[in-house]
Amino acid sequence: MVRGKSDRGDTSVVVVVLETNEVYIVVSLSTAGDTQVICVDPTTGALRHQGKQGEDLFDSEAAALKHITNGSRFLSKSTTYAKAVLGYAVLGSYALLLVATQLSATVPRLPGGGCIYTVAESQWVKIQLQNPQPQGSGELKNIKDLADLDIDGKYYFCETRDITRPFPSRMAIQEPDEEFVWNAWLSRPFKDIGLPGHCVILLQGFAECRNFGATGQQGGLVALIARRSRLHPGTRYLARGLNACSGTGNEVECEQIVWAPQKGGQVIPFNSYIWRRGTIPIWWGAEIKNAVSVEAEIYVADDPYNGTLQYYQRLGRRYGNKSSEVNATSKKKPGMVPIVCVNLLRYAEGKPETILVEHFKESLKYLKSTGKLGNTWIQLINYDWHATVKLKGQQQTVEGLWRHLKAPTMAIGFSEGNYYSVKQQLNECKGSIICNGDGGFCMDNIQNGVVRFNCADSLDRTNAASYFGALQVFVEQCSQLGISLDIDAMFGLSTSRNSEYNGRSARSLPPGWEERFDSVTGKSFYIDHNTRTTSWEHPCQEAPHKRWKRFDMTFEQFKSSTMLAPVNHLAEIFLLAGDIHATLYTGSKAMHSEILNIFKEETGKFSKFSAAQNVKITLQRRFHNYMNDSSRQKQFEMFLGLRLYKHLPSIPIFPLKVLSRPSGCMLKPVPCITPMADGGSSLLSFKKKDI
To answer: How does pLDDT run across 614-628, given as a tens digit for each residue?
Structure first.
């Protein structure tokens, strides 16, 4: 469908190949009111755009396409319709343009606006160039492997908001954190022609949300956003531990955002919680001797702690709470930044992972001895997940984890704030202000520090433990938004554990109290007609000493006192995220995931099935890792533009940019060598010539 001038909606991309083999990329951004035409140089493959109205800048997509084809559809050899441009690269005799043909709005609207799209279907458009270059069979195979990289369902982006940093980011969309940008190399050609926004900023990982409110009642939304680091990209047995960039293998930053949409939309309260997962941050690896080996051989480098300090310093800078930003009048010195490492490895005598546990301990002793950690404070919690499950069962394993996590989670906290659609409402803000178009965010509290989970691969145990840690925070996040998950707080509703709940409206007011809406601040306030006083705080607000109360509960107490529908919604997205991370790292889905369904009544029915499934996945992983890890590693490196001298040796690192004439321009009847006064065709025009 071709869009007219008044049809501005989602971004539209049209790739047109003419009968003359001229190639044009027509882009109409959702954030702009015009359409740009980008021409592909037929010889060098370089992108061309001058921004001249009527030549490569038009009021609508329809006008642009009419100009390119002279209004005749018979002049087009092929047309590809897409939703977004993901990257472009010139690879010898032809160029590859990566586009998303189908998108899924997995987080439709963040507080303050912004939609996160996951790439549902993608396509590499092959563009033949008139520049044959000698390329070996190995290089041609590598190019084919690059085009076979699995993109769909594993990459996402946002066109209007920076999502490479914790929400809400104060940075502009075109100033992302490069650690989480996976198409930086592929997007460079668009930056070179002054159109950086025409190629999205692509992240690898997972982003989805769930609405956990009942129909017709005020509830909330929870989003899980998982950003995979590109500092140590690759597969299971080729990207473990630290590398020269002080990045660890399978490193993921996870963010859990909860918000309560309001009917008027003027004020949206929200909060967010951040944690990390990754392999142990020392120099180590594992080697598979053969495809049927039971255990891979773990080895540790001679200088295992080189880069460990830089890794923790980076975390300290990212997760340190800048107190001056929260309260400009505060004169307190910045406090310590806690980084709590939850190590889930086996550490019993004779276990292969024990060597990693010992080196993990020694690495922290080494870091303290350097005296260079500054305000960063590191705590290590060793919790042998598999051994505890085997000895005590799943329920007591979860209870034990909660006991370990209680103190650090409460100390680190989570970020809280409100989005105001009108900037004047921010005048009453006493915290950090982040402007956002006509409105802005008022941050009442900012998370200080981070919990980091790890097992050997940052996979199955890590996903399970991080879920149960995030679950405790989720209940507290809801409570702070006025959404009670307590069953005994649900007046007038069924107390069945599987029923949905009423959200904020469940917090009934005591007799004599009334809730009103303040039109200036956009906040609710409460009137006590008994004493003729008003308050901004809900009279049923939990006392501070009652916060985080579920950390002290047994599993059965948690289950019997908590509305389980939202709990299972959260488990659902953790299961999906776990499969995505496992597939990217190992080529197979996550194992031992049945524990995430522990709150469902039918959990026990699938225990035998889950055990058989785990065995099947183990065998699949070992085979895929042994046979395919090296080729998948090469795919990731080429996608990121790494080690091109090895994978694509004929490709220049800094290609010479020269203008060339369009293909076959001398074979067409040419009315005039010089430009026509009436704007007609000329020899150097990329437009179809008139006969």
So the answer is: 566 665 655 566 566
Query: Who has greater pLDDT, 423 or 143?
Result: 143
Residue 72 vs residues 66, 69, 75, 639: alpha-carbon distances, Å:
7, 5, 6, 37
- Amino acid identity of residue 399, one-letter, is E
pLDDT at 216 over 50: no
User: Residue 504: its pLDDT value, please?
Assistant: 37
> In sequence order, what E strands does 5-161 have?
12-18, 23-28, 35-40, 47-48, 57-58, 76-82, 84-91, 94-107, 116-128, 155-158
Cα angle 666, 669, 674; round to 5:
75
| Nearest to 473, CA basis, from 321, 210, 273, 319 | 273
Query: Rounded to an integer, what distance in angstroms lies between the CA atom of residue 293 and that of residue 148?
Result: 29
Confidence of residue 515 (pLDDT cuts 50, 70, 90): confident
Exposure string over 222-243, b if 16+ CB within 10 A, otherwise e: bbbbbbbbbbbbbbbbbbbbbb
DSSP 581-613: HHHHHHSS--SSGGGGGTTSTTGGGGHHHHHHH
Q: Does 104 or 626 have the greater pLDDT score? A: 104
Nearest to residue 14, comparing CAs of 30, 4, 2? 2
**pTM of this prediction?**
0.85
Q: Which amino acid is at 325?
A: E
* 519-527 mean pLDDT: 67
Q: Are 465 and 344 in contact (CB under 8 A)?
A: yes
Cα distance between the two ends of the chain: 29
CB contact burial 108-122 (16+ within 10 A = b; e otherwise): eebbbebbbbbbbeb
